[in-house]
UniProtKB/TrEMBL annotation:
Coiled-coil residue windows: 349-394
Reactions the enzyme catalyzes: 2 GTP = 3',3'-c-di-GMP + 2 diphosphate
Keyword Phosphoprotein included in the entry's annotation: no
Transmembrane portions of the chain: 12-34
SUPFAM superfamilies: Nucleotide cyclase
Keyword match Repeat: no
UniProt lineage: Bacteria, Pseudomonadati, Pseudomonadota, Gammaproteobacteria, Vibrionales
Protein name: diguanylate cyclase
């Protein structure tokens, strides 16, 4: 079957041609003019920003320089120096302060202090808040600079130092010296001038230089300047002055308004869009007129062709029609003349086409069968290859993960009992790519996997997400958990005391160092330590034998384990008759409550020998809390307190 070539409607082509010739030049010119104007307005916006930046920097520089000049003038004024140390000059001194404020263009708070740093006069500030502020302490720490005859600047951030402001600003400090400075090592200032300028006052000073939607923020100098953006501009200002020891530095952060500065650009773009829209409508109207002119002419030719192709009667297309274009009339005549010749050729072609179509159908069927067979064969090969590759990959990954598990298990002994949870979490995340995984020795929220020992005793708890694993991953997870549980079981046997089944000295050293590290890293806020020593164990062993002594030790351990702090306290047997309790996150009040419980618990507690004679269970206690002592000193302090308690016990006995 022959494939028909795509055709183009001549009317549509003509419309597209006219529209293209009309609109493309228009679009090009409009784009050119818009780009030119946008470039000009962007350059104008840049010039405006540069002018604004220069004006702001010049204004701040001029105002600060004038302020420093005024401070230098007043710091050498003998009347000011005399009035600062004499309260009877308050009225003329107040006029002096008002004149000082009038000489500066920035709203400032002024403090005059005498040689003993007592505030004698102030304007627009609070003497009480200033004298009790951290700023005056910082200023007095710079006494060496003031004694050299120079002033200095400080950035402060404290509220209520000025009457109106945001509580952040810069302080200018200068000494009052009634003589000309000479090159000597030290001066004795007769008083001090402290000028506080709030950042809000500086912002108000330069606000008229910005647009209505824009603002400026002042900050202390930063070693790494802020990065400029489309709406944020950062500048650093440095002012040198002979009266201050170091240059005055300030960082300015502009918050710019692209909306206000690009308003003219937006208006111009809207105007150009309206012009383009009007021209577009005119072009559409022109295209419509051209289409209307040619439409009837081409419709007639199309009608003739369709009628003849369908075998229509000649009378249907022989009606008179006036052509505007002679070429179209000649085309119609040629079409009609060729109609009869084409009809004969079509009949011959139909016969040949029937034979060709039958042959093509047969060939197509054979080709279709062959393609189907080849496609089925390729699919089978791909499926078998894919299955084999997946099997090989799975086996390789399984072997690799098994090697990693064996390698990770060997790392358990190097990390220790307390460091094991974090190591297990890191290893499981690496092996199985869990989103969340947690391992603890005690049950935690969300835990769903228990590690069981050889005696089905729970050794730890694991939770992980996602919960479901593939079959081969689950097998590897089971191997890892079994090895982990066996290691924990062995480690706990090594940490357990054989007589009392409490924790031993090795476990205490490990857990005590672990708590000190957690306190240092702020993982816990506090912890307590209790040292207990059994009273009279040696006489019992000497007179009644070690069997009764062991009963006494076991009874003492049970008393320690049966307090209201059982859930948070660990009991360790660190010697023959000595125990220690560690209590994380326990306050001092709770520690003393535990001490009272232990003292009450031993009252009436007894063990019996083989003859049925009762022997009192008694022990001495020493307590210490991390809020009161350094962690490294806690055991010794508690041990000393325990021995003092034991001394009192034997003294009373």
């Amino acid at each position: 079957m022959r494939r028909e070539l795509p055709t183009i409607n001549i009317r549509v082509a003509l419309i597209v041609l006219v529209a293209s010739c009309t609109l493309l030049p228009l679009l090009y010119l409009s784009h050119y003019f818009i780009d030119t104007q946008v470039t000009f307005l962007q350059e104008q916006k840049t010039r405006q920003l540069n002018n604004t930046d220069s004006a702001v920097l010049a204004t701040i520089r001029t105002d600060v320089t004038r302020l420093l000049d005024t401070v230098a003038l007043y710091s050498a004024d003998r009347f000011v120096i005399q009035a600062t140390n004499n309260i009877f000059y308050s009225s003329p001194m107040q006029r002096k302060i008002n004149d000082f404020i009038g000489l500066t263009d920035i709203d400032a708070t002024v403090y005059f202090a005498d040689r003993g740093w007592d505030i004698a006069y102030e304007a627009s500030g609070s003497v009480y808040h200033f004298e009790n502020s951290g700023l005056i302490k910082q200023i007095r720490d710079q006494q060496a600079i003031l004694s050299s005859g120079l002033g200095f600047t400080l950035h402060y951030q404290e509220p209520l130092l000025v009457d109106a402001g945001e509580g952040r600003g810069v302080a200018f400090v200068a000494p009052l010296l009634p003589f000309t400075l000479e090159k000597v090592s030290q001066y004795e200032p007769q008083g001090y001038i402290i000028i506080l300028i709030d950042y809000k006052s500086l912002s108000s000073r330069v606000k008229p230089l910005l647009l209505e939607e824009e603002s400026i923020e002042f900050r202390p100098p930063h070693p790494i300047p802020s990065v400029d953006g489309d709406s944020v501009l950062s500048r650093n200002l440095t002012i040198n002055h002979p009266t201050i020891s170091q240059p005055f530095e300030l960082q300015l952060i502009y918050s710019l308004s692209d909306t206000a500065r690009t308003e003219q650009l937006t208006v111009y773009q809207n105007q150009m869009r309206r012009v383009i829209g009007v021209v577009f409508l005119v072009s559409v109207a022109l295209v419509w007129l051209v289409n209307h002119l040619f439409s009837r002419q081409f419709s007639r030719i199309n009608q003739v062709v369709l009628e003849l192709s369908r075998g229509g009667e000649a009378s249907a297309i022989n009606r008179p029609f006036k052509y505007v274009f002679s070429e179209l009339r000649n085309i119609e005549r040629l079409i009609k003349a060729q109609r009869s010749r084409i009809s004969l050729q079509v009949a011959e072609l139909k016969s040949s086409n029937l034979k060709l179509e039958e042959a093509n159908i047969t060939i197509a069927n054979k080709n279709q069968q062959l393609e189907t067979f080849n496609a089925r064969l390729e699919e089978q090969v791909v499926e078998k290859t894919k299955a084999l590759q997946q099997t090989l990959n799975r086996e390789a990954r399984h072997s690799k993960m098994l090697d990693l598990i064996l390698q990770n298990i060997s790392d358990f002994s190097s990390i220790g009992y307390r460091g094991l949870p974090q190591l297990v979490q890191d290893q499981l995340t690496m092996l199985f790519e869990f989103e969340v995984v947690k391992f603890t020795y005690q049950r935690h929220e969300g835990s769903h996997l228990e590690l069981l020992s050889s005696f089905d005793k729970v050794q730890g708890h694991i939770s992980h997400k996602p919960l479901l694993l593939k079959d081969e991953e689950q097998v590897l997870m089971d191997i890892y958990c079994q090895q982990l549980a066996s290691w924990i079981e062995l480690e706990r046997i090594g940490r357990c005391d054989g007589l009392t089944h409490s924790l031993n000295r090795l476990a205490f050293d490990d857990d005590f160092n672990y708590l000190k590290q957690k306190l240092e890293n702020d993982e816990i806020g506090q912890f307590a330590l209790v040292v207990i020593d059994i009273n009279g164990l040696k006489p019992v062993n000497d007179h009644y034998g070690h069997e009764l002594g062991d009963k006494l030790i076991i009874a003492c351990c049970k008393l320690l384990q049966n307090t209201s702090f059982t859930n948070v306290a660990n009991v360790y047997r660190v010697g023959g008759d000595e125990f220690v309790m560690l209590l994380p996150d326990v306050s001092e009040g709770e520690l003393h409550s535990l001490q009272r419980q232990l003292e009450q618990a031993q009252m009436g507690a007894e063990v019996f020998d083989e003859a049925g004679h009762a022997h009192r269970v008694s022990f001495s206690i020493g307590v210490v809390h991390s809020d009161d002592h350094a962690p490294n000193d806690m055991f010794q302090i508690a041990d000393d307190e325990m021995y003092r308690s034991k001394h009192r016990y034997y003294h009373q006995a």
